[in-house]
Write a structure and sequence with these properties.
Layout lengths: L6 E2 L2 E5 L11 H9 L4 E8 L8 E2 L4 H5 L6 H8 L8 E6 L5 H10 L6 E5 L2 H10 L4 E6 L13 H24 L5 E5 L5 H9 L3 E5 L4 H10 L3 E4 L15 E2 L1
Parallel strand pairs: 2-3, 2-10, 3-5, 5-6, 6-7, 7-8, 8-9, 9-10
Antiparallel strand pairs: 1-11, 3-4
Length: 250
């Protein structure tokens, strides 16, 4: 059993860099995250085409990519290889399946695989990544959804029912995936995070990252719970009143 009384500060993770300070997945956003003391930067990788082919872009979705000229994966990784980012971990979030090997090869080429956690919602990608890169850290992003259905006028109540169902089931699901070596970390939406989930992940030897948390009080609560990392659009919230400012007790 893990020592759940040991003090620990959760990692501070900037979502898309610092999306509420500068447009996400840009050099400006990454610099803003770095300037506000993050331990890890999350960024998104999207292929030019839905089948996983074409260039690899730093974009959350195709609408995002169409609004600007996105960085390429090589441009982004070259930026993170600079000395200024030494010691900063990377959460490399794959939005679609089909380009796993290219992502791993790019991380290796830039000397960043050891600092990276490759995350995805796609079960097929998890299997491919483990097969081709047994030395890579792999994170399962949960749930596999593209929008928040709790805010939808029709699907709101079924969505809440789904949340309650998975809050009971997810601890066992995550622990099994970790013990079988399929993943190294669970990247969970905050609505599914419970003390039972945290304990199950830690007992299975894994990490628990929580997304996307833009409320200072929720950040403080998650730090007290002792999760591995908290992903936010605004790293300034970690030092806001009620937010996580220093070590927390797991």
């Amino acid at each position: 059993m893990p020592d759940l009384t040991a003090p620990r500060r959760s990692k501070r993770v900037g979502h898309k860099g610092a999306d509420h300070i500068a447009p996400g997945n840009t050099l400006e956003s990454f610099a803003a995250a770095l300037g506000h003391g993050v331990d890890m930067i999350e960024f998104d990788i999207l292929p030019e085409r839905l089948d996983g082919t074409g260039g690899l872009l730093l974009a959350h979705d195709y609408e995002d990519a169409s609004r600007r000229t996105p960085l390429t994966l090589d441009e982004g990784l070259a930026h993170f290889a600079h000395e200024a980012y030494a010691g900063i971990e990377l959460d490399v979030d794959m939005k679609l399946p089909g380009y796993e090997e290219r992502v791993v090869d790019a991380l290796r080429a830039h000397g960043l695989l050891e600092r990276a956690l490759i995350s995805t919602m796609e079960p097929d990608s998890l299997r491919v990544l483990r097969a081709i890169a047994p030395d890579a850290r792999i994170g399962w992003s949960f749930p596999r959804v593209r929008q928040d259905y709790t805010k939808h006028p029709v699907y709101r109540y079924p969505a809440y029912a789904m949340v309650l169902w998975y809050r009971r089931r997810l601890p066992a699901m995550a622990a099994r995936a970790l013990r079988e070596g399929r993943i190294d970390a669970l990247m969970s939406h905050w609505a599914f995070v419970t003390p039972r989930l945290h304990e199950a992940v830690e007992c299975a030897g894994g990490e628990l990252y929580v997304w996307t948390v833009d409320d200072p009080q929720r950040i403080a609560d998650l730090e007290r719970l002792g999760v591995t990392g908290i992903i936010t659009n605004d790293p300034r919230l970690f030092d806001a009143p009620g937010g996580g400012a220093g070590s927390s007790t797991a």
